[in-house]
Design a protein that fits this description.
Blueprint (H helix, E strand, L loop, with lengths): L8 H4 L5 H7 L3 H28 L2
Length: about 55
């Protein structure tokens, strides 16, 4: 039995190219920054809302 016959079927599947994976998956850094900006934006909006609520009384 040769070493190629002992490999599992997943190892014989063609590998995806960099272009294919880049098109289907966002970079991790982009996801982290997007999440941080969304959280920071909501906190800032809440702070402005609080300022207007307190200032309006």
């Amino acid at each position: 039995m040769s070493e190629h016959e002992a490999e599992p079927a997943e190892a014989l599947a063609p590998r995806r190219s960099i272009e294919e994976t880049a098109e289907t998956k966002f970079p991790r850094g982009l996801v982290v920054r997007l999440f941080a900006y969304l959280v920071a934006g909501h906190i800032f909006a809440g702070f402005l809302y609080l300022l207007f609520e307190v200032g309006g009384k």
